[in-house]
User: Fold these one by one.
Assistant:
Number 1:
Amino acid sequence: MAKVCILGGGFIGRFYADALHGQRSRDRVEVVYARKEETAIRFANDYSIPHYTTSMEEAVAHPETEVVVIALPNHIHEEAVMLCVKHKKAVLCTKPLGRNAEEALRMTKACEEAGVFGGYLEDLCYTPKFLKSLQSIKDGAIGRILWAKSRETHPGPHSDWFWNIEMAGGGAILDLGCHCIEIARNFIGKDIKPVEVMCWADTQVKPIDAEDHAIGLVKYENGAIGQFEVSWTFRGGMDLRDEVMGTEGTIWTNSFLRTGFEMFTTGKGEGGYVSEKAESATGWLFPVGDETHELGYTHMFTDMFNAIEEGRTPQESFYDGYVVNAIIDAAYKSAKSKLWEPVQLPDWRGQEGLQKPSVYQEYDADHWFIKEELLPNGDLKIILKKKESGEIIEIEKLNLK
Amino acid sequence: MAKVCILGGGFIGRFYADALHGQRSRDRVEVVYARKEETAIRFANDYSIPHYTTSMEEAVAHPETEVVVIALPNHIHEEAVMLCVKHKKAVLCTKPLGRNAEEALRMTKACEEAGVFGGYLEDLCYTPKFLKSLQSIKDGAIGRILWAKSRETHPGPHSDWFWNIEMAGGGAILDLGCHCIEIARNFIGKDIKPVEVMCWADTQVKPIDAEDHAIGLVKYENGAIGQFEVSWTFRGGMDLRDEVMGTEGTIWTNSFLRTGFEMFTTGKGEGGYVSEKAESATGWLFPVGDETHELGYTHMFTDMFNAIEEGRTPQESFYDGYVVNAIIDAAYKSAKSKLWEPVQLPDWRGQEGLQKPSVYQEYDADHWFIKEELLPNGDLKIILKKKESGEIIEIEKLNLK
Amino acid sequence: MAKVCILGGGFIGRFYADALHGQRSRDRVEVVYARKEETAIRFANDYSIPHYTTSMEEAVAHPETEVVVIALPNHIHEEAVMLCVKHKKAVLCTKPLGRNAEEALRMTKACEEAGVFGGYLEDLCYTPKFLKSLQSIKDGAIGRILWAKSRETHPGPHSDWFWNIEMAGGGAILDLGCHCIEIARNFIGKDIKPVEVMCWADTQVKPIDAEDHAIGLVKYENGAIGQFEVSWTFRGGMDLRDEVMGTEGTIWTNSFLRTGFEMFTTGKGEGGYVSEKAESATGWLFPVGDETHELGYTHMFTDMFNAIEEGRTPQESFYDGYVVNAIIDAAYKSAKSKLWEPVQLPDWRGQEGLQKPSVYQEYDADHWFIKEELLPNGDLKIILKKKESGEIIEIEKLNLK
Amino acid sequence: MAKVCILGGGFIGRFYADALHGQRSRDRVEVVYARKEETAIRFANDYSIPHYTTSMEEAVAHPETEVVVIALPNHIHEEAVMLCVKHKKAVLCTKPLGRNAEEALRMTKACEEAGVFGGYLEDLCYTPKFLKSLQSIKDGAIGRILWAKSRETHPGPHSDWFWNIEMAGGGAILDLGCHCIEIARNFIGKDIKPVEVMCWADTQVKPIDAEDHAIGLVKYENGAIGQFEVSWTFRGGMDLRDEVMGTEGTIWTNSFLRTGFEMFTTGKGEGGYVSEKAESATGWLFPVGDETHELGYTHMFTDMFNAIEEGRTPQESFYDGYVVNAIIDAAYKSAKSKLWEPVQLPDWRGQEGLQKPSVYQEYDADHWFIKEELLPNGDLKIILKKKESGEIIEIEKLNLK
């Protein structure tokens, strides 16, 4: 059983509390901190939490606090982590870990040096579909990974500080790209070094300073490509989709707008909350069965608390949060310089010196296989490359019946 | 915290144990019973269960047993329930409750008279999609329910006793129809009386005595129609789909083959379990993220244990299991008699004497509204019925631009 | 090149004219008849048709008329066909052929005796998806057909006469069921005799005399089942879906609401026609690329005119229209009698005396194969039936690693 | 009626002939040229073409040739076009127009100066879904276009010359990217100038010199972004998807792998051609109803021949082919230089000097509107920006019931 302290009484704090108290959980939130007292009281009431406070340090230091969950705006993450380090409390921090890699590395090292558990609350790397996809990839079901694209777009976040570039540290890249980058990184392999980033970003619609739309490519040392597509200008709800291409297969997941749940309503009945970021409450709607679960919160906290109890590193640690921040830093640099920017990773803990594998498929002793295809008229074509000369030839098996 | 005893060490027992011990659950299986000792030992080992036995009564009576979960073949349900009644242990029974309404009513009454909690483990009425659909319907999002179709088809069950009509008590109707009937009944309203049933059933493919394919219509007192489509001959995996039509909307859910998770594999990687009833391990596959959750086991046990702790009736009780059995009895009778057969419900606890509502939509003082449609050429047509004469007319608004 | 006369200037006449003049067609509509002169003039102008008239016989007899296309309400089909017989003009009649089998048989025989070509305009048996499905079934891709379900539901037709039971001859069964019945009949085999029908029908919502919702089962001599689901009360647009189960496979087609074309719009742009029977113009919409083509009109007229030119019977002839009417007659009878009603086919031209095949799959010399399944824990189970004793057994291959 | 000469007897030539002779077409192929006589003879036989030859000039100059359709490898396009110019025959050229912009501009100008009709056979800009999407966009249904992504990936082309970088002029970018670029360009607006391109390309799998996988971003003068994703390494069939984001909506189309047609087969029946680039013939398959139509060939030739007859420019002209080539040239340059490369368009015929529009949405006299969202607990949040100070604030409407 874990006794939890939540820092922050907003949107994400509520999602976390729903997950922590969900189903037949043995874990309980014992302390909640919020900046405004009325928020703290309302939150404590809603989730039957015995203690609330408007002092962050009091919350962290509270005797009932074993594990601290940080659900605060980005610019306060470091301060909160340092309080946990000071009071030697295990700490789980919402995404992104820092506003940049420098902040993230300081938090990571502070925890490591103090022997404090640091879990990175990257929920989208814990969705049921993600976990099963990752297992399939590890089992080799789709071969060597060539490309992993993750997309998160919606009509914009729900709190003022997200839109303030100082407090948030960035726009859609930092808010949404952190998910996409870590998803692709998992699929490609966490020990494969991200090398360089090319990113386009623009403020296309909203009256803000940060980017509201961005697309980035992350090149890994083994030749694989990670891609992120993020936007605060998407219309139609929240679009959460991943696509992975491997030499032997493909994975497509859709975690929100098309999950096998479709509803049409004329709107004459009572309205209400449809799902996160839904844009309409009539016509064809696409609800999600159990958002807390589908968005990964349940499996995420299970891994975190199990990891604490078993004394092991969680699937997503502060170090992972740091690598993500380093990639984001390169993305922001690239968006300005219009160049491929190197990923700066002074503290790299994975493999080094990989090269793109080139294992061609053999057709016979003299030829590499390129492909074969059955044509509409029944002819079969086989495309080969002569090993010696490099010449490309085709063999036709005509369907003469 | 609940201390659980599982009766039965097979397929469904494992699904239950996975759910009971899942995530950060505070509940634990303390005792397991299986007919064969080797099964009991393997099960106890796999789930770290301290006690196992090959005596059903010993399991039920065990001091560590607070709640009994029956995961046994249909023909042993009654015996097991009666042991729970004898030893005053709360009992949760897998579906279908009985092989027929007579058995089910005896179990229901025995529990009620002894004050023993009787929960009906109807998992498909607890899937996240189902629960959210049900809430939408209760909120009026799709108006008055006209028709609720539930479909469960797959290539057949995984244990010998299912295929033996004596032990199972029936074929696909009893095995799968029990889900579909209760799903439709929930959508239409549990207090609406099922009146009569028309059912077609046949043994189209398998070398068995029971039906391997059936379709049934269940008429409810308020004019709504429940439909079930069940089969052990379906090819392509397990097809779990519900469709509901209301006067103001539509709900479609797909709980298995199309949930937003798609994978193509050439099969060159390592194979393995894809998902329940999957028929192939190469080509396009449609895995399910977290089967235990998606099939409703998690929410089901949450409701059951919460209900026990709160001293309330669970969402699905033995009485519900009895009503389902009564509908199934009528379906089997109809399949033989080829007639609409009345549902025999000597113990009916819902509303009586309902009639089909006939609330027409008014267009103006003199006309009922039938419909309007925009045609491809831009014309608008409105179809009306004169209140007095009953004559049907159309008004055209030509698009003459 | 065909010179065409269209009888009827309404909704379906326009769809036909769009198809006839579509793409690079060599066929032309030369004559149009409509009851009201203004309709005839507008139609002639819209499609550049040289001749129009308000006399049906004048249209049929017109020297430029080679082929007559009947696009009239149901109660005038017979009169129109008889005019074509009188003037020896090839005739293509919209669906349903008659209001009942008696009318349909009279039309069929009148054409046959006069040597007049009679084509049945059953467009949904000509959609590209249908044609390809049918070919796959004929190639054996899904084995022996066990069940073929066709569903057409929408919020109701667009002209007054549909809602008048005298003129239409029926409600949703006649209007939509005629499609569904013929689709299933094609998949099961046109030479397989439909034997009996069970049908539920009700007027659940609309202020009309005819049924606005119905479900029917059609039993064929070889044990296959056709199912139709039709409604004028569906909310959400037009739902056109077919599902076929065979011993070796499954086919699912969706011809309207989910064809790989999805659009979200806030509605701030200009509105307009979305697609047939669409119910909203904002939120998530599901347009169809080329309705004329997707609904089968293009392939239908290609087959009809080619058949006329080649002197062969078209894929859908008046005789097919007659069989459909006979099944509908039985459906209406069943809806009233609540019994399975025999299909009355005094003129049956297909196979007679079929029986349900019972070809079991052999496992080894002593056993029939029932099924095998890989369980989540890696165990493999095989279910068999002993040929001699009939006993059902299971073989387990435990995954003990 | 058009009398057509096809140059080239391969895969694409057959698709063209199928479309040209399809349905009730009034157009006919009168002459076919192929390099090998046996190919020419077989092609002429298959399509009942009266004349065949192995001399390209003879084919073009043939008296029965009115319109020449070029279905040849990329490196022969210019030679073939010049023959048409010489003999003053209308010419329709397959995609891409040239191997680079220089070739394409020469062909464009040669046709224009000689008054010869030059149609660019960009079939994917003629699919029914594309045409309807384009109309919706022109009607303003999704507002100002922000991003248009087009994806074409499959396991590689079917003829040897594609894989030879000399003959093809490039790899997947030239082969597939030409489609994607022109699709996005149509959605964004053909008169909007493409300004610069960033492209990643690699040879990840195949033993070839050209790229087998590439991703590119095309920046347009008004700030819109076109994106292409192309690959010859995709596993699972042919993936053809477009996605468009506008300020007021979204369009998603899927033209191949998910079009509402799904089939499962155990493979025990007869096999055969499933669809272009299909990778398996068992398990879950996703056929396409009528490929010729769904891939746009039908509407494409309709537009081309109508344009010739009406003396107007077709929707896709040689000039469009030239712009596409110019963008591809920049993409190849960028893939090498790793820089955003300017699109070189010495002959630009659209708008000049556009700027990104910045029309913010007003909330009230003092505030710009950023967004509002309904939270799960019923609270409503509105995010605004103060016009004067630029400060971002939020207004909360708590759900205190």
Number 2:
Amino acid sequence: MPQVTPEQALDRERLHELAQQLRVDSVRAAAAAGSGHPTSSMSAADLMAVLMARYLRYDFSDPENPANDHLVFSKGHASPLLYGLYKMAGAIDDEELLTFREFGSRLQGHPTPEIPWVDVATGSLGQGLPISVGMALAGKRLEAADFRVWVLCGDSELAEGSMWEAFEQAGHSGLDNLIAIVDVNRFGQRGPTMYEWDTTSWAGRVEACGWHVQEIDGHDAGAIDEAYAEALAAGAPAAIFARTKKGSGVAAVEDEPGWHGKPLADPEAAVEELGGVRSLQVEVQSPPAARPFEVTCASVERPSYEVGEKVATRGAYGDALAWIASVDEKVVALDGEVGNSTYAERFAAKHPERFFEMYIAEQQMVAAAVGLQTRGWKPFASSFGAFLSRAYDFVRMGAISGADVKLCGSHVGVSIGADGPSQMALEDIAAFRAVLDSVVLYPCDANQTVELVEAMRERRGITYMRTTRSATPVLYEPGASFEIGGSRTLRSSGEDAVTLIGAGITLHECLDAAERLSEQGIAARVIDLYSVKPVDAEAILRAAKETRALVTVEDHWAEGGVGETVAGVLAEAASGTPLVRLAVTERPGSGLPGALLAAAGIDAEHIVAAVEQAL
Amino acid sequence: MPQVTPEQALDRERLHELAQQLRVDSVRAAAAAGSGHPTSSMSAADLMAVLMARYLRYDFSDPENPANDHLVFSKGHASPLLYGLYKMAGAIDDEELLTFREFGSRLQGHPTPEIPWVDVATGSLGQGLPISVGMALAGKRLEAADFRVWVLCGDSELAEGSMWEAFEQAGHSGLDNLIAIVDVNRFGQRGPTMYEWDTTSWAGRVEACGWHVQEIDGHDAGAIDEAYAEALAAGAPAAIFARTKKGSGVAAVEDEPGWHGKPLADPEAAVEELGGVRSLQVEVQSPPAARPFEVTCASVERPSYEVGEKVATRGAYGDALAWIASVDEKVVALDGEVGNSTYAERFAAKHPERFFEMYIAEQQMVAAAVGLQTRGWKPFASSFGAFLSRAYDFVRMGAISGADVKLCGSHVGVSIGADGPSQMALEDIAAFRAVLDSVVLYPCDANQTVELVEAMRERRGITYMRTTRSATPVLYEPGASFEIGGSRTLRSSGEDAVTLIGAGITLHECLDAAERLSEQGIAARVIDLYSVKPVDAEAILRAAKETRALVTVEDHWAEGGVGETVAGVLAEAASGTPLVRLAVTERPGSGLPGALLAAAGIDAEHIVAAVEQAL
């Protein structure tokens, strides 16, 4: 063992005092709130004290400074600790600290970007690390920046597969600006974790992912200090497995089960045991000056397609993405190893330095997108629509973060054909509509797709586009304009008997049906409801007033899709116009697209039959 | 190198012939279909030929035999290979093989349980292995059975975090009846995988999870044979990383990129190169006799609660689960390390041998439930409703499998209070409604919860129950009966002016509002819409006819929940009765439940205001 110099000893005493303050403030905040996670905060107090005092480079007066390090609490429930750090940095005062979890306080139960120093909402375990991978990728691959991403992880959350997607991706990408600090306090919510303090299995796995790994005593300030120094010099992503005691510092709860997510029984005694309330502040290091960087911007022409030409909207998505990235250098793209299906490969071919291959790891893909947008990038992430369901919790949390993430799901609906139901997104409209402040777009032709991709770029928030596998005829002129929240009436006479409402593939079936109906002397209005959320209620209500029945047709389950969206508009307006909803209601199989559309009852023939019955 | 005896040489020649047949049939099936994945099948042909000829124990004439091994194609796109195996086993004929991907054929693009020898649908990568963990858990922990679970995995799917949840859980549970065969053909869909043929990183990680690991040449029948023998004797879950060539056996595609998911350009030449069409059959080993096993069934009384008592429905869920498991020995429970919140711990306390702690790995939890139900168990899996969104793709695929899985999500809505939005399920009704053949239940009191848990037990399929964090008054008498698809009118006079429709927590707000309205002389009907899917359309339409307005109130986003369900019923019936939908529309924060219900506009006061405005 090396000798500790008197100077080091003094410094360690100071670090201990800082850690004790963090413990005290965690206890006090939770006591004031009557809830929260003081014990999960106390275990990591030494780890965070050393980080704040000696390693973090962050200007709390300028959270937008691009050279700031990032500090992500992947174990978001340790929010009292995070807020204690803000107090220690002088960013908040003690009074605000004690508003923890109060209605209206920005110091919520789990951190959210309502707080200026928080990049992303955490609290759904296993997300902070994969999101941090996105930040670190931005630093390494796009910005050649000096900032580091520090992530405080819990041991329990190592059970989430998403953590392992992150370890793999970070190792593969050589993210030496990423440091994962794992607070191994051996207790989860309801009892011991799988491995408790035996960090061997995790360490072995993380090392095999190409990380630099250390296993330390997480209450030894000297060891923590050395570990951080070693991590920064590692030349690889660095993981520190720190064995700690939950509730450390207070005998009544230290390393005791049953104290997860609860204020201490006797907070006053605990504060006394910890040496009383302190108001120490640390001078957090300033970041170095931000380095300028350049983005290569290949010139790509705006794609346009001739009316009548047959083009898959997924292809137009790829073309449009390549184009908008040439006019907006902030546009980046990610794909889940299906870029030759989603056509994100067309972006990759033109802008390879802004393309991120995330392999078949949809959670990591969406998480990386969330991470990238914290640095001002505009990420478009694509996969089969069906497989985006894999990342649903990441989308949900992204919305809580107010993240600016654009998603594209290809191969939707039964119309994909022979691959069968495992590959068919039939729930994506419902799932993405039920996301805070989301937008859901479903273009029917290539020129419309281009316009809507451009609209996605401009719009901040979670925006989802659903694209079609098969080629469909181009209906709109190049440059025709389409707004989020709009619709397009494609067929209308003064005397429409019925309104057919479709989007994407079914719009073409609606047009076909309208043609057949007109042969029978029935005039049908056709509405292209390309913006499913927000929806053009006015057009729907006009149709409800001017025609005798509405028929919605969608290549999606009956729940939560186009039909229910329209139903909601009608019911709220107390419209008595009958609505017929055609949608997929039974398990589809394999087959040709046409056969499957027919089997699902959503092709032109079934639309005609539905109209005949409705009228 | 050991010498190969003449007998072994003969045998290997036979194994090679079998593998060639599998390659030929993969090429032919895909050629007939005009689509499919022959090259991904050919890489694993030797692996599967040896398995079928020498290791698999399976009675194809009796797929229900509980002693049969399980064979799961986690890489479901290699379906031509699987169907080729069925032909080789004499289970299907050549004519049927060539119906691959035809409309109406059970030989779909990806395997589904429409085929009697397929346990679960695969095709969403990363699911077969975690589901197999569930089967293996059943064999080891519940049935003391001799069957083995063989899983053919792809290398690309090792990027999915769910695979790593499975490796960890299987290692932790010592599942020595599980053998993962990884076909490392080094190509994904659009190009090389992260590690190509370097299996070191994966092998290191899997070993660190407690598996027995081998790395072999996947085209060497002798090596494969030895690897299987070693795997069976390993006393631990066994992984075999087999380096193979995609498209092996046909020079035009062997180890060539660009041939993923495509029929061969010249299938006839390929068949010739492979030695022509064969019709070899193997005598697949019969399984040993099934062993009887016993299930311990602790006696637990049916829970019942007094009217007026305050009980959280999540608590009643735990009580009910413990009870039904005492009357039905097939009931098992899983939880994502939050059993003291979901109250699955009450089941665990009574029936520890039928409880599975899945730690914070929701994908593995749902996957294990899907695996367990293939063996006739009736799994109930619980976590916070918000975190079940993590497993959405597994639920989607479970529905395609027709799996009998019961899910319970606790802590739904803003009414959970101080923990904040990351913990609030606000999209779960929408997401679970948009699942094939699903049922969505949302009880408002403890006695109703008990009845509905019993209904879940009886019902086969994906059934979701949403439970409330806080204690709410018991409204119904013990033993009151509630059916899936029903509703309950709790307040009604002959002259109701308005109908209030709630479920769960909001039902109580509706009752409170009705009381306040009656003080103003406004009679309000109150409907408890505890079965959100299927919904009691009759009760809704009756209310629409008999009252002047409907108000739905839900602790959920406005999309895809109770309000849209009701809107759908009204619009399809062409009801002109106005509907007002109260739901959560803005990002909630932390606070007390009452404050958050008020802030979201879904408490009694806002209901009263909405009624006043509507009338």
